[in-house]
Design goal:
Helices cover about 10% and strands about 55% of the residues. The protein is mainly beta.
Amino acid sequence: MAKRAGNVCYFLALILVSCSGSDVVRISDQSYFPLRVGNFQIYQVSETNIQHQSCTDTSTPIKNYQLKALIYDSAKNPEGGYTYYIHRYTRSDSLHAWTDLDSWNARVANNQVIVTTGNVPYLRLVFPFTSVTKWNANLYNDLEAEENSLKNINQSYQLPGGKKFPTTQTVVQSDNDDIFVKHDVRFEVYAPSAGLIYKETTQLEYFQQPCYGDQKVRTGLIYTQSLLKYGRE
């Protein structure tokens, strides 16, 4: 596979910009999703999957673990660019060995970052980053349209562990904060060179009867993913 060519493509992507005024891609934009063979990120993850049978059920099983994403290869694609192959691993903590989780792939085409997971392509980012930039995350699949937007553009962000990134972009994937029927709040934070530094998902479906209005969760997911380390292997 074309590892060397993929690396060259990465550096060229940081140099080239479009000549049309509204389509200019700043160097910093593409560095928020760095694609280079050997890049890795390690995250601390907290995951709570809720499955309640009644309004009185309050069990909330929490699973804490570490997640690693590694770009292990690249290949030229039919669009003329490169597709980067990402393998993910998990472990309970730093004292244990990594175990295989799954494989993704990602590519940049037409100022868009497209990530394919489970054979389903998602539009994750659109360049350039502006306050009016919006896109349909499901543009390239058959799922219901989902509008994403940006907020806190070029603002600093501090991770739960204390590490602070001076410049970040926050992608709002859903902002439905309903507390009676279905709550769906999801966002991701990106930083230059590091890529995804934080991800939070809270999706809750509430019981309707006999405890409507009491905020009793029937099913749900509460998930956080916070960057611990990134670099190259």
